Amino acid sequence: MMETANNTLGEEFSAFLSKKLNKKFKLLSIQRIFGGASRETYRVKLQDEEKKSENFIYRRSQNSSLIETDQKTEYLAYSDFQETEVPVPKLFVLEESAKPLGAPFLVMEELPGTVASPFDKEAYTPNQADLGKKFWKILGKIASHDLTKSKLNENSAKKNLKDCWRQELEYWVSVIRKDSLGIEPILEAAIRELFRSKPLPASRLSIVHGDYRNGNFLFAGKDITGILDWEMAHIGDPIEDLGWALSEIWCWEQKETPAYLVPRKEALEIWTQESKIEIDEKSLFWWELFACVKGLAIWISAGHEFSSGSNTDPVNLFSAWLPGDIHSEIILNKLEASL
Amino acid sequence: MKPEINKSLIVLAQELIQRFSPMIEDEYEQSRLNSWGTLLLLASMDLDRAAEHLVEQNKLIKAFLKKYLEKIQDQALSRDIEVLINHKRTNYDVSILDDLNQNLRGILVKSQTYFEEEGNSEALRECWEILRIMHSHSKMSHLLKLLKS
């Protein structure tokens, strides 16, 4: 039954792409990829008239998605890094209307490599040192990317150095207020602390990936072959991405080795060298605390999707239970220690 | 005596993961069923002590509020605290205990905010101790290893 539904989707996709790329594709296979809750992602294998097979990634918006962003944001962010040193897949199509295939979607090339679970501390062994250098260097490149030619910047609301932290914080607090199923005193304490102790103004405005972490990149041996999942990309303080990527949630079983790659000190040195941005320790603390609040907003939103019945994917229940618990504990440790 | 619900759920989770999941060919559907099995396992662990945890949390918050009531000059907040600390438990249904717990959490947030503004470090320290105990009741992070296996 499920196979039939997927095949219908694959045939429709094949017909659409044939017309769009002026080729004559035949569907070989379609497979949904497990894990993402913000999009339905499929790996589609097509064959052209010369019997050559091509693999595509087909990302469809869900009726209800964990993080409500439009496909255009992700498309623009990927566009900004085409043919740069930040590895991203080649883009083929952005369809913003639900008319052709029932939901807006993006089509990209399938890059080689594997995605690891962010909770698997052995995922990158034995290549963690090489991958770590590349991971933090790429983040530095994203932070220092020239915004004057950025399509994402062109299509974003204007931000300023002084207040970009506030816009992000207010946005995620509004998600919490909308979707919360109960009162979380630890989270509330973090929100109060963030409003009380603002960070220094951003040293520059940058493209912020929004979910840069282990688990959101493809790797093959010692190489990072693709940076994925740009749906939360926006313009803001580059330290925001740093705070998110450094978060202990992504290295819970080895806390001094963020993303289970290289030690924290080394990660910061690589990033600073590449981005040419100086890190203020207090501001970094603020953005790491912010990462917990943003994370909890996402996990609360997932729990709400599950509870309301609008998306009963087990990923949503898992997100509400386990990552939510870890982010609360990180807040607890940070704020209790600062008493 | 009948088999306990939480133990039965553990067996069900094991059946899903070990017996039924390998029969599914579609990779996505198989991963989805495995996730359900794991979540069921986590839920079964929580089930046995859910009521006890809520009772303990409610007791802790009430004792804290009672101890610091006289330090609170905000009359509206004091009134709300008095109502809640005098609330008598009607039964041990988890839903009833949870309702009371939510009300107590709400007042705890207000009281913590009040003590932050007043700079009452002793009350704040005690408050964080309670939050740590409450967090330990819902803690799942130590189960990461189980999830991987």
Give a topology summary.
The complex is a heterodimer of chains A (339) and B (149).
Chain A: H1 2-21, E1 26-32, E2 39-47, E3 53-61, H2 71-80, E4 91-95, E5 105-109, H3 128-143, H4 151-154, H5 164-179, H6 185-196, E6 206-208, E7 217-220, E8 223-227, E9 234-236, H7 238-246, H8 264-275, H9 281-308, H10 314-337
Helix pairs in contact in A: 3-8, 5-9, 6-9, 6-10, 7-9, 9-10
Chain B: H1 5-20, H2 27-47, H3 50-68, H4 75-85, H5 94-118, H6 121-138, H7 144-148
CATH topology of the largest domain in chain A: Aminoglycoside 3'-phosphotransferase, Chain: A, domain 2
The average pLDDT score of chain B comes to 90
**Which consecutive residue ranges of chain B, at least 5 long each, have pLDDT under 50?**
none
Cα-atom radius of gyration of chain A: 20 Å
The biggest beta sheet of chain B, please?
none
CATH architecture field of the largest domain in chain A: Alpha-Beta Complex
Quickly give the structural class of chain A.
Answer: alpha+beta
What report would you give on this structure?
The complex is a heterodimer of chains A (339) and B (149). With 339 residues, chain A is α+β, with helices and mostly antiparallel strands. Chain A has helices spanning 2-21, 71-80, 128-143, 151-154, 164-179, 185-196, 238-246, 264-275, 281-308, 314-337; strands at 26-32, 39-47, 53-61, 91-95, 105-109, 206-208, 217-220, 223-227, 234-236. In chain A, strands 1-2-3-5-4 form a five-stranded antiparallel β-sheet. Chain A has a two-stranded antiparallel ribbon with strand order 6-9. In chain A, helix 5 (164-179) packs parallel to helix 9 (281-308) and helix 7 (238-246) packs across helix 9. The longest helix of chain A has 28 residues, at 281-308. Chain B has helices at 5-20, 27-47, 50-68, 75-85, 94-118, 121-138, 144-148. In chain B, helix 5 packs antiparallel against helix 6. At the A-B interface, helix 6 and helix 10 of A face helix 2, helix 5, helix 6 and helix 7 of B.
